[in-house]
Amino acid sequence: MASGISAPTHIRDRRPPSRPPSAVCWCTKRYPWMDFGDKGRPPMRACGLDFGTSNTAAALPDGTVLPLQPHTQEARLFRSVLFFPDDEQDIYAGADAIQRYLEDNTGRFIQSVKSFLHSSSFRATQVKGRTYTIEELVAVLLRRVRDAAAGPMGGAPEAVVLGRPAVFTPDPEADALAQQRLLRAAELAGFQRVQFLIEPIAAALAYEAQLTRDELVLVADFGAGTTDLTLMRLGPSRRDNPDRRQDVVGSTGVRIGGDRFDAEIMRHKLLPRFGAGSTYRVRGFSDKRLPIPQHILAKLLTWHEMSFIREKSTQELLDTMLATSDRKAEIQALYDLVMDNLGYRLFRAIEAAKVRLSREDVATVDFEEARICLHEPITRAEFDTFSQPLLDELDACTAGLLAKHAETKDIDAVFLTGGSSQIPAVRQLYVRRFGEERVRTADAFTSVAEGLGRASAHLSA
Question: What is the pLDDT of residues 84-112, one digit of tens each?
């Protein structure tokens, strides 16, 4: 595998979008309201690309989702992860990165990079003595996806309709920064024409393809990092309209995704197994004891934050806690979790239990590594209780969108997509508000990619 990142020799359309980043942007003779000024240019090999926090998917202009990793169980999903082994020059991506990391985790494993696109404080990171900007890290992933698409497409795509959340972040400047970085990453990956489409609108286009009558539809797209909501008029009488602006009634988003549901399991069920509630003796004071600092416990809620606990000052604190804790076994588990770089594996076990709870009443977080032995049961009722604050946020976001644009009775259908749409309590939230008969679902992980693919049809026409 290639280890470097090289810019394409010919890059066009580098200028930033002229509309606000929250707008729907994509140029087309069919959709002139999303024009980047590309009229008259020759058609190109094009695709739609859904770059997600956890997974990435790509689709053809007819909506066919591509098998990016045909030899894996989830062939149409390319995991949005990178691994830089200490003892190799190669960079591994997708399922290969996970496999290589699980074989030997000595190296740098990078996940959820999309979550940092809006952060001006995250500019670059050092990997084995080389500085990678956030744009370059994303570009590695997008280039691997582009290369994987080349086989089934008969050549690498030159143009792309790229999904983006309705809201990366409420801060307009940070939101614009995120889209600018994503644009630059796509250019570095070799795409010559890059256009953006809000992800829930892409999901709406996928849903629209199956409609036989016009509907006012609320689309809820649940990603790993964010949930996006769009209210849109869809149907056969509108499908071929040259201008769809008037069909987008409203759009909003909230930073709630699958990762936060995982974090609640960690917070409420597993933190005590890693020392939460224990105390340790302060060095130099024989009778003074303190609990584990909150900043350490907070970093345990997301696996990619755990690396910060490995800093030298925190390692010294871990050594002190290990020597003086009133619950040595739990602190030993914490030490191994952090120092052996086991966070990703633990959160895979947490996610697996969460997925089982979507179809079963009880699941177990099973994890045995180093000196850690976890078999922690969790019931769906417990999970629903842990998740209630997140559900309340989702409900408030939905209510806010409706308050501005429509009454509940006016909504013909609610289309749920994305991994967390499979959580029974999430679905039930919308069933309570709209009724079972109006709540629809499709492929939870590829609806956005399908819609983005359909949106790319004009580029290859």
Answer: 999 999 999 999 999 998 888 788 999 88
